[in-house]
């Protein structure tokens, strides 16, 4: 399949079930909300080393938030519910509670409950105040700046982690440019995050290593400087490969996000130095979710090969 | 339940007790059984049909026409469904109710919604003393649900309230929120003296600073995010709070170690 001169390889992204939740962070200004969102989702690129994967889903206008102030919604994913219950209060306490003017609210109603102020309220040392409205409780924790307002807990969803695609391009600059365009299009699709720096991974990994005890190592099949010396997945003209990883609240949201990203890259096309779109998988036996590139892009093909 | 329409045959000569006359209490009973239900009336017990004309009405609704201030325990223990009173009720209306809706077009006597734990009471008129409070000798008052009083509330509103929301369109009498444990009361028209004595926690929302006992301490005016949240999450308080962002926070009753608050917005 070729779209605008870009080969869509007959491959698929292999993804895994993850448990995730959404938090709504508000602040006096959009900047401070964004600061809290960025800090809270910092050091959360991969569960391999960070314990969770997190990112900003989107920014929120004042009329979309529970307290009428500007905000951001963030998504946090972990491999199991027990881990999620640990990382959410930890990040909430260190990054949102501490950030000037913020408040934090539940962003998911359904599913198993993930503690928020249920844990953090003890910072109030007995001066914390709760209000229960219908079945929903929120807390006011007195802090030096004023009061930190936070919901008791939030719901959770069974999401999908590790959706991905690779952009093969002639040069590093062209690969990066294509990745940036993809990220811009993908962040418009709700229900997903791109947990890596700026949404882009330049060091995609494979499972395992020649070194004992290392779970992941560089994906040498896609390293351009190893072309010819290893079993390479590249073509001679490929100068650089960038990967985009997607975590989402459902299979469909990840599929929609993948499609938006690949479509944006293909719009740049071969003229912008993009050679092919590929995807990372482990042979299909490890992850239950398979995002087949050609199926996802099916309707957009202009000339099948 | 098939709907029921109760119309008093005559003004009540003495107090009548409607405990148990609720949609769930009547469920499964035939019309004849309902008509024979014994209702305490003064010192005697009379069949329901001797006090009321009993007719069928819209499904799930118990409609009491005309009403009477001697009709006690209307909607007491209500769990689900709707009771509409087209007039006044006596004492203990909605006492201990846990769900459903009780709408009263007139005024209510003492102990309206006492110890209710859920559901909604809408009162168009005035409430007597100790609305949302605790029964005599009981340690805890209302613990959940909504008690909306459009008129004035009598003395000792929200006494020992433990949770839930009370809104008053008019004024509240003396001793509002005495020994309050938790929950929220909003009074639009001002409150009488001796507010909040023995208050442990909970929030009293007012538009003007009231006369408060010695145990209350004014912490000053604050920009409170919680006001904006409550205005959006609690439709019943949206009108009261408007676009308020600041409140004067007065904390008490500190003489009793309490951390309740009066918020003046």
UniProtKB/TrEMBL annotation, chain A:
<comment type="pathway">
    <text>One-carbon metabolism; formaldehyde degradation; formate from formaldehyde (H(4)MPT route): step 4/5.</text>
</comment>
<dbReference type="InterPro" id="IPR022667">
    <property type="entry name" value="ForMFR_H4MPT_ForTrfase_N"/>
</dbReference>
<keyword id="KW-0808">Transferase</keyword>
<protein>
    <recommendedName>
        <fullName>Formylmethanofuran--tetrahydromethanopterin formyltransferase</fullName>
        <ecNumber>2.3.1.101</ecNumber>
    </recommendedName>
</protein>
<dbReference type="InterPro" id="IPR014053">
    <property type="entry name" value="ForMFR_H4MPT_ForTrfase"/>
</dbReference>
<dbReference type="GO" id="GO:0030270">
    <property type="term" value="F:formylmethanofuran-tetrahydromethanopterin N-formyltransferase activity"/>
</dbReference>
<comment type="similarity">
    <text>Belongs to the FTR family.</text>
</comment>
<dbReference type="InterPro" id="IPR023447">
    <property type="entry name" value="ForMFR_H4MPT_ForTrfase_fd-like"/>
</dbReference>
<dbReference type="Pfam" id="PF01913">
    <property type="entry name" value="FTR"/>
</dbReference>
<dbReference type="Pfam" id="PF02741">
    <property type="entry name" value="FTR_C"/>
</dbReference>
<comment type="subunit">
    <text>Homotetramer.</text>
</comment>
<feature type="domain" description="Formylmethanofuran: tetrahydromethanopterin formyltransferase Ftr N-terminal">
    <location>
        <begin position="1"/>
        <end position="143"/>
    </location>
</feature>
<keyword id="KW-0554">One-carbon metabolism</keyword>
<keyword id="KW-0012">Acyltransferase</keyword>
<feature type="domain" description="Formylmethanofuran: tetrahydromethanopterin formyltransferase Ftr C-terminal">
    <location>
        <begin position="146"/>
        <end position="296"/>
    </location>
</feature>
<dbReference type="InterPro" id="IPR002770">
    <property type="entry name" value="ForMFR_H4MPT_ForTrfase_C"/>
</dbReference>
<keyword id="KW-0963">Cytoplasm</keyword>
<comment type="function">
    <text>Catalyzes the transfer of a formyl group from 5-formyl tetrahydromethanopterin (5-formyl-H(4)MPT) to methanofuran (MFR) to produce formylmethanofuran (formyl-MFR) and tetrahydromethanopterin (H(4)MPT).</text>
</comment>
From TrEMBL, chain B:
<keyword id="KW-0560">Oxidoreductase</keyword>
<protein>
    <submittedName>
        <fullName>Formylmethanofuran dehydrogenase subunit C</fullName>
        <ecNumber>1.2.7.12</ecNumber>
    </submittedName>
</protein>
<dbReference type="InterPro" id="IPR017550">
    <property type="entry name" value="Formylmethanofuran_DH_suC"/>
</dbReference>
<dbReference type="GO" id="GO:0018493">
    <property type="term" value="F:formylmethanofuran dehydrogenase activity"/>
</dbReference>
<dbReference type="InterPro" id="IPR036485">
    <property type="entry name" value="Glu_synth_asu_C_sf"/>
</dbReference>
């Amino acid at each position: 399949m070729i779209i605008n001169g870009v080969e869509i390889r007959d491959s698929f992204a292999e993804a895994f079930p993850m448990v995730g939740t959404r938090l709504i962070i508000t602040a006096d200004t959009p900047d401070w909300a964004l600061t809290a969102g960025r800090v809270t989702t910092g050091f959360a690129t991969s569960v391999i080393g960070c314990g969770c994967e997190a990112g900003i889903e989107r920014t929120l206008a004042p009329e979309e938030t529970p307290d009428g102030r500007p905000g951001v919604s963030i998504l946090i994913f972990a491999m199991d519910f027990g881990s999620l219950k640990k990382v959410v209060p930890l990040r909430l306490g260190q990054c949102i509670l501490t950030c000037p003017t913020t408040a934090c609210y539940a962003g998911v109603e359904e599913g198993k409950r993930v503690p928020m102020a249920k844990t953090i309220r003890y910072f109030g040392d007995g001066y914390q105040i709760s209000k229960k409205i219908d079945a929903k409780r929120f807390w006011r924790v007195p802090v030096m700046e004023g009061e930190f307002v936070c919901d008791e807990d939030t719901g959770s969803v069974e999401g999908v982690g590790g959706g991905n695609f690779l952009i093969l391009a002639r040069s590093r600059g062209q690969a990066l440019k294509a990745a940036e365009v993809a990220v811009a299009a993908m962040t418009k699709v709700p229900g997903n995050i791109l947990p890596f720096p700026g949404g882009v991974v330049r060091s995609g990994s494979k499972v395992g290593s020649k070194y004992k005890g290392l779970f992941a190592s560089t994906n040498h099949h896609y390293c351009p400087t190893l072309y010819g010396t290893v079993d390479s997945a590249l073509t001679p003209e490929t100068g650089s490969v960038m990967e985009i990883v997607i975590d989402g609240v459902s299979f469909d949201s990840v599929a929609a996000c993948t499609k938006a990203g690949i479509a944006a890259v293909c719009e740049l096309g071969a003229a912008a130095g993009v050679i092919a779109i590929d995807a990372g998988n482990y042979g299909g036996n490890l992850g239950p979710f398979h995002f087949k590139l050609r199926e996802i892009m099916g309707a957009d093909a202009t000339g099948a090969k | 339940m098939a709907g029921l329409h109760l119309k008093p045959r005559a003004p009540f000569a003495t107090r009548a007790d409607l405990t148990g006359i609720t949609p769930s209490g009547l469920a499964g009973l035939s019309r004849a059984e309902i008509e024979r239900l014994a209702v305490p009336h003064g010192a005697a017990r009379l069949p329901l049909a001797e006090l009321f004309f009993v007719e069928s009405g819209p499904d799930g609704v118990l409609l009491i026409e005309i009403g009477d201030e001697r009709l006690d325990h209307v909607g007491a223990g209500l769990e689900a469904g709707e009771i509409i009173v087209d007039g006044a009720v006596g004492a203990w209306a909605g006492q201990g109710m846990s769900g459903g809706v009780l709408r009263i077009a007139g005024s209510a006597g003492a102990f309206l919604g006492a110890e209710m734990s859920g559901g909604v009471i809408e009162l168009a008129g005035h409430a007597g003393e100790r609305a949302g409070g605790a029964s005599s000798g009981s340690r805890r008052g209302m613990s959940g649900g909504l008690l909306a009083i459009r008129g004035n509330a009598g003395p000792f509103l929200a006494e020992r309230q433990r949770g839930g929301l009370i809104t008053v369109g008019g004024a509240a009498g003396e001793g509002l929120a005495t020994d309050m444990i938790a929950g929220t009361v909003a009074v639009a028209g001002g409150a009488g003296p001796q507010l909040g004595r023995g208050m442990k926690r909970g929030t009293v929302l007012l538009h003007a600073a009231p006369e408060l006992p010695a145990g209350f301490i004014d912490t000053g005016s604050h920009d409170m995010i919680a006001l904006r949240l409550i205005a959006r999450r609690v439709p019943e308080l949206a009108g009261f709070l408007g676009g308020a962002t600041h409140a004067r926070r007065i904390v008490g009753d500190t003489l009793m170690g309490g951390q309740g608050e009066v918020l003046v917005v």
